[in-house]
Amino acid sequence: MADEKTDKLPVNVTNLTSQIKSVVNSESPIMAQDFSWLHRGIVEVFPQPTDINSEIESLEKRLANSNRPLRVKLGIDPTGADIHFGHSIPVRKLRAFQDAGHTAVLIIGDFTARIGDPTGKSEVRRQLTQADVAQNAQTYLDQVRPILDFDTPGRLEVRYNSEWLSQLNLGKILELLSTMTVGQMLAKEGFAERYKKENPIFLHEFLYPLMQGYDSVAVEADVELGGTDQKFNIAVGRDLQRHFGQTPQFGLLLPILIGTDGVQKMSKSLGNYVGLSEHPGQKYQKLQGVPDNLLAQYFELLTDLPLDKLPENPRDRQMLLAWEVVKQYHGEQAANEAKEAAKSGGKEGAVPEFSLAEIPHFPAKLAFILNATGLCKSTGEGRRKIQEGGVRLDGDRITDVDITYQEPSELYGRVLQVGKNKFVRLVP
Amino acid sequence: MADEKTDKLPVNVTNLTSQIKSVVNSESPIMAQDFSWLHRGIVEVFPQPTDINSEIESLEKRLANSNRPLRVKLGIDPTGADIHFGHSIPVRKLRAFQDAGHTAVLIIGDFTARIGDPTGKSEVRRQLTQADVAQNAQTYLDQVRPILDFDTPGRLEVRYNSEWLSQLNLGKILELLSTMTVGQMLAKEGFAERYKKENPIFLHEFLYPLMQGYDSVAVEADVELGGTDQKFNIAVGRDLQRHFGQTPQFGLLLPILIGTDGVQKMSKSLGNYVGLSEHPGQKYQKLQGVPDNLLAQYFELLTDLPLDKLPENPRDRQMLLAWEVVKQYHGEQAANEAKEAAKSGGKEGAVPEFSLAEIPHFPAKLAFILNATGLCKSTGEGRRKIQEGGVRLDGDRITDVDITYQEPSELYGRVLQVGKNKFVRLVP
User: Fold this and answer.
1) Helices A280-287 and A314-330: crossing angle, nearest 10°?
2) How many Å apart are CA A267 and CA A353, to the nearest integer?
3) Using alpha carbons only, what angle is made at residue B45 by residues B39 and B50, rounded to the nearest 5 degrees?
4) What's the rounded Cα separation, in Å, for the pair A308 and B273?
5) Which residues on B lie below 8 Å from A192 (Cβ)?
6) Of A240, A296, B63, B136, whose CB has the highest number of CB atoms within 10 Å?
7) Contact of A111 with A166, CB cutoff 8 Å
C-alpha cells in the first residue's frame, strides 16, 4: 500500500526533495518540518526548482519560511447544488492547509454563473439568478462544513468573484487579454483538439481562463488547488499575478476521483457517486462496496488514516473505509449505527421508514406528505421548507412548492429529507 | 476616361443595377433618382442582392425609400494630428451623403487611443492623454472642415467612442466575444498570415474589430464607410447589429489613394503625400506634378468634375486638378494666386518669405521668431500658440514651447505656420 502510494507520487516530487536537500542547510526548519500532510494524495506541485532554474523557491520552502499565513485558493462553481466525494478532494487538502495555520480562500464563481453562456448554446452554462447562486453557494457551504474549519478566526475567507469581475472595464479586460497569445490559448487541452477538428471555439471562451486567473490576482493567492484539469488555468493565474506585480501562486494538482464503479470519474450523471448530503446509511452502503482496486486511492484521498496500517482483509478494509468516512461527516455514533444497520442486512441502513398507507388520500401535495411523515410540524412549514430549498427526494432538492403526487407508488422506496439530519424512507 | 472609370467599378455594381431593374417597377423613385454621387469612385457596396438571395435590400433602394435621413458612419483614429488627401477620400464620400440629405456620424476613436497598446510593444498604439486626444480630434475637425457640411442642422454628428466603450462591463464584453469564433477571426486578413507564420497574435487584438463593430451598434449606423482594408471590421459591425436586433449597416468601400510618386499608397512616412493643412501653394505645387497614370483616379476621387469633359492635354489636366483641389480647400482666389505663383516659376508658390537675417541674435527661441516674423504679435502670443498646438514647421506641429534654434541655417527653406492661414518661408 505504502509502495503503491510512492509509485503514484510524481517523479518530480522526489526530485524536489533531493533539490531541497542540496540547496538548504540540513538544520533548516524546512527539513525539520513534516510535509506529509501536503504530499499526501497529490499529483503535482508546480513550479518546482529544477537543475536549470534552481533559484525557484519550492512550496515547502515558502510554507516553512513565510511569516504570515499563506492564502490558499479554491474556486467553486455554484451552478449545481449537490456535491459528491469527488468534489471533496481539494476541499480536504484545503483543510490540511488550514490545520497547518494557513487561510483557505473559497471563491464562489458567481459572476460566470450569473452570466451563463452568452451563446445560449450550453445547457451546462445556463444563466442563474442571484437568488439561485446564493442558494447554491449556501448549499455548497453546508455540505463542506464537516470538512473545513469554519470556526478558527482567520482560517476561512469566502469570496464571490462578482466582487471584482463586475468592476472590470474594457481597458482592464484588454490588458488581461494582452498577456496571452492566440497560440498559447489554443495550446490549452480542449481548445487544441477542437481547433484541430474545426469545431467552433467562441472567442469569449478565451476569457474564462483569464477570469479564473484574475481571481488569483484579486485575492492575492499564494497557492491554488485544483484537479489535474486545472493546470492551464492555474498557470494563467501565475502569469497574471506576475503581470500585476505579485509573487505568482503555486499550483497544487489533485487527482480526479474514480467513482464507485471503479472505472469512470465520479459523476452524478453516471450514478457512480457518493453525495456529501446523502444519509449516513446511504454513504456507508455505497462505500462498503467500493471495489478493491479503488480502496488504496479512497483511503489516501478521503481519510487521514496511515496507509501502512490498514487491515489485510479486503472486506475489513471496505468496512473501515465506510465507517471512517461516515464518522468524518456525521460523527462516531452515526457511523456505528450505519455499520450496525448494514450488518443487520437492511440494505437501506438507518433510515426510518414511513408507510404511505397512513396518508388518507392521493393525489397528495408534498407539503402535506412532509407533515404526515412528521418531518415538518404542519403543511405550512412543509411549504416553507420547500421554498427555502431544504427539502430533498433521493438527494435531489425539490423547489416546486405545489408539487403533487398522483399515486403512492410514485414514492415507494424513495428517501425524503428535510435539512441535513431528518430522513424517512417512503414505503407502501 | 469615362471608360476607365466604368472598368474600375466592381462588376457586382453592374449586376446590382440589373437586379434592381428586375425587382422594382420602372416608375419607382429608385430608377428616377440619380445615384452617380454614390457610385463615383467606390470599390464595393455590400451586401448586394444576388441571384441566390434576391430579397436583400440594396443600398440604393434603402436610400430611395427611407423616410428618415440615413446615419452614415466614419471612424477616425485620433492618434495622429495631420491628415492627407488619402484620408480625405471617405470624408468626401461622407459629404456626398450629407448633400443627399443624410447624417454624417464621425466617430472619434478616443477610447482605443487613450488605452494605447496594452502590450506596450507597439509604437503606433502608444497611450495618449485625454488632452492629446482632444487636441488631435480638434485638429482633425479643423482639417476636414472645408470638406464636410458643418452648418446644416442634422447633417453632422461627432461622437467619441469612449462614451459607450468605457461603459462596457465584462458581461457585455463576453457577449460581444461570443458572437464570433476563433476560426472566423483568424480568417481576417493580417491575422491569417501572422498565425500561419507563427508570429504572435495577442488575444486583445481580437477585441478591436468587435469594438469598432460595437460603435456601429452604439450609433445605429445604416452605412459605414471605409477603405478596402475595412471590409472585415465593417462586416463584424453588421453581425453585432444583427445580434442586438438592429438592421445591419451597409458597407461602402473606397480605394486606397496612391501617393504623388504614382507607385505607393499615400503616406506621410513615404513623403509622397499632400497634407490637408499644407499651404495652398504647396498643395498646388505637389498636385500639378501628379504623374499621368494617377490623374484619372485623382480627378475621380478628389474632385466632382465630370470625368468625360477633362482637357486632352496632360499638362492642362494636371493644372486643372491642382487648381480645382486648391479651390475646394482655400477658395478660388487662393487657387488663382497659387497658379500664378507656380507659373512665375517660384517653386515655393505663394508663401511669403521672411529673412532670418532680421533676427538680431541666435540661439533664438521659436516663440521669439514667431513674433519677429509677424506671425504673432508678441513672444507671449507665440508661446501661447505653441501651447495650443497651433504652430507648425513644414506641416509638423511643434509642441515644445521652449524649443530653441542655435543657428539660422537650421531653418533655411522651412515653412513656419500659425493656425490655418498664416505662413512664412524662412530664408537666409
Assistant:
1) 160
2) 28
3) 115
4) 83
5) none
6) A240
7) yes
How many residues are listed for chain A in this entry?
428
**Residue contact B171–A207, C-beta within 8 A:** no
Across the interface, whether the CB atoms of A111 and B195 are under 8 A apart is answered no
Question: Helix H segments across B169-279?
Answer: 170-177, 182-186, 191-196, 207-219, 231-243
Mean pLDDT along residues B357-373: 87
- B contact test, residue of A121, A128, A168, A170 with most B CBs within 10 A: A170
pLDDT band for position B188 (cuts 50, 70, 90) = confident
Give tens-digit pLDDT for B418-427: 887 788 888 8
- Tell me if B177 and A203 make a contact (CB, 8 A cut-off): yes
- Rounded Cα distance between B427 and A165, Å, is 61
Go through A51-85 and write b for each residue having 16 or more CB atoms within 10 A of its CB, e for each that does not: eeeeeeebbbbebbeeeebbbbbbbbbbbebbbbb
Of the residues B174, B175, B191, B236, the best mutation for testing chain A's interface (the one with the most A CB atoms within 10 Å of its CB) is B174
Long-range contacts of residues B380-386, Cβ cutoff 8 Å, at least 24 apart: B385/B418, B385/B419
Measure Cα distances from A174 to A188, A191, A273, B76, B79 in Å: 20, 21, 41, 20, 18
Q: Which residues of A touch B170 (CB under 8 A)?
A: 111, 165-166, 168, 173, 207, 211
| DSSP assignments along B395-406, one per residue | TEEP--TT-EES
Return the axis-axis angle of helices A207-219 and A231-243, rounded to nearest 10°.
60
Q: Which residue of B has its CA nearest to A208?
A: B174
Alpha carbon distance A16, B410 (integer Å):
67
Interchain CB distance below 8 Å, B171 and A115? yes
Task: Choose the mutation target among B125, B128, B169, B170 for the interface with A, i.e. most A CBs under 10 Å.
Answer: B170
Per residue in A204-252, pLDDT tens?
Answer: 999 999 999 999 999 999 999 999 999 999 999 999 999 999 999 999 9
Q: Nearest by CB to A170, which of B117, B165, B181?
A: B165
Lowest mean pLDDT among A289-303, B109-123, B173-187: B109-123
Tell me which chain B residues have a C-beta less than 8 angstroms from the C-beta of A175: 118, 204
Quick check: A174 and B202 CB within 8 A?
Answer: no
CA distances from B120 to A319, B77, B93, B114 (A): 62, 18, 35, 13
What element of type H or E holds B7?
helix B2-8
Q: Please give the domain boundaries of chain B with CATH numbers for all domains.
A: 66-254 (3.40.50.620), 268-343 (1.10.240.10), 353-427 (3.10.290.10)
For chain B, the average pLDDT equals 85
Compute the C-alpha angle A141/A145/A147, nearest 5°.
120
DSSP string, B150-199: -SSTTSEEEEETHHHHTT-BHHHHHHHHTTSBHHHHHTSTTHHHHHHTT-
Q: What's the pLDDT at B26?
A: 41
Nearest to B178 among A111, A170, A202 (CB): A202
